[in-house]
Amino acid sequence: MHKNKIWLSSPHMGGNEQKYIRDAFKENWIAPLGPNVTGFEEDIKRFLNSKANEESEVAALSSGTAALHLALVILGVKSGDEVICQSMTFAASANPIKYVGATPVFVDSEEDTLNICPVQLEIAIKDRIEKGNKPKAIIAVHLYGMPYKVEEVHQVAKKYGIPVVEDSAESLGSTYNGLNCGTFGELAVLSFNGNKIITTSGGGALVAKDLRHKEKAVFLATQARDAAPHYQHSHIGYNYRLSNICAGIGRGQMEVLDDRVSARREMNQFYLNLFADITGVNVQTEPDERYFSNHWLSVIQVDEKETEGISREYLREELEKENIECRPLWKPMHMQPVFKDAPYYGTGVAERAFENGLCMPSGSNLSEEDKRRIENAIKACFNK
Ligand SMILES: *Cc1c(COP(=O)(O)O)cnc(C)c1O
C-alpha cells in the first residue's frame, strides 16, 4: 500500500499569503522592494519588540545565509580574522565566515540545550587570545528552536568584549526569560526558508540593535549604491534584498506565527507522551522555566545500551520504510571534511549527540492520521 510521505518539516500556509501577493501584482511591485517588504519588516519588528529589553530594527533579505554574511561584513570581520561558531549547527552558520576570508573556530555544545557550551567558549577565547588572535565575533545558535544558555554565553562575550551574532534561523517565537530569541545579540539572523517555522519560500532577515546597522545592511544588500544620479560605488555590494512577492508570503505567515509555535510545541508533547514509557529514548525539552522553545524540530536521543540494541539508525531506517522522514542531528562542523583544518574546542558532547540524536517529523500541519502512523511505527520498533 502506498503511503503519503510524512515530512520532517514542510511549508504550512495560513491563507492570507495570496492576498498580499495579489496586491503586489495589482500595483506591479514585482521587485526586491515595495510595500510588502516594508510591511514584513514592520511585522517582524513589532513581533520581536513586543518581548525585548531593547528595540530592534529589521532588514528583510534574500536568505538567512545572506543575513549572516552581512552581519560579519558589518562587524568588520576580514581576511585573517577568527570567528567563533557553535560546532553543532547547520553549515550555513559557518560558511559566511569563509565568505569574508576569516577562519572559523568551532566550540562544542553542552548537554542541556545542545547549544554552545559557555565553559568551552571561554577556554577557546582565552586560547585564541594567547595565540595572538582575539576572535572578532561569536556565532551562537538556538538549535531546533531551543534557546542557548543566554545569560552564561553573553556574560562570557561581554567579559572579553566580543560581539555575539545570534543565529535565530530556527528559533523565531522562542523566548528566554520571557524575551524573544533574536533580540539578544548585537546582530541576529532569521531565516524563512521552506522548512522553517514560517516561510517566504526563501528569505531571511538581519535584526539589529543599531539603526545604522540596519541601514548599512540594506545599503550593502542593494549593490552599495552611493547617493548619485548615476551608479556610483565606493563599497563592494551584494544583491541580497528580499523580493516583494516573497515578502507578501511572509506577511501572511506572520499572521499565523503564534499558531505555528503552538502546533510545533504540541508535536513535542506528542513525542514526550509517545516515549514516556520507552526506556532509553529521551525527548529533548526545556531544561527549566526560563527556556521556551518553539520546538521547530523535536529531537530524541537514543541510548542503545538502555534500549537493548535499538539504535538511532535502526529507528531512522524503520521509519523510512514507512515513508516517514527523520534525520540525524546536524553533523558538527568540526567533523565536516570542508572544515577539517579549523580549530575546535570541546569534550565530545556534540559528537555524541550527533551519534545518538534523531530529528522527528515536527511540522505544524501533521494530521491526526500522520501522528497515528508515527506512533504505530515507533511502537512496532519497540514491540509495544
Ligand atoms: C536555515 C538555517 C540558516 C540559513 O538560512 P537560509 O535562509 O536557509 O539561508 C542558518 N543557520 C541555521 C541554524 C539554519 O537552520
Automatic annotation (TrEMBL):
<dbReference type="Pfam" id="PF01041">
    <property type="entry name" value="DegT_DnrJ_EryC1"/>
</dbReference>
<dbReference type="InterPro" id="IPR015424">
    <property type="entry name" value="PyrdxlP-dep_Trfase"/>
</dbReference>
<keyword id="KW-0808">Transferase</keyword>
<comment type="similarity">
    <text>Belongs to the DegT/DnrJ/EryC1 family.</text>
</comment>
<keyword id="KW-0032">Aminotransferase</keyword>
<dbReference type="InterPro" id="IPR015421">
    <property type="entry name" value="PyrdxlP-dep_Trfase_major"/>
</dbReference>
<dbReference type="GO" id="GO:0008483">
    <property type="term" value="F:transaminase activity"/>
</dbReference>
<dbReference type="InterPro" id="IPR000653">
    <property type="entry name" value="DegT/StrS_aminotransferase"/>
</dbReference>
<protein>
    <submittedName>
        <fullName>DegT/DnrJ/EryC1/StrS family aminotransferase</fullName>
    </submittedName>
</protein>
<dbReference type="InterPro" id="IPR015422">
    <property type="entry name" value="PyrdxlP-dep_Trfase_small"/>
</dbReference>
<keyword id="KW-0663">Pyridoxal phosphate</keyword>
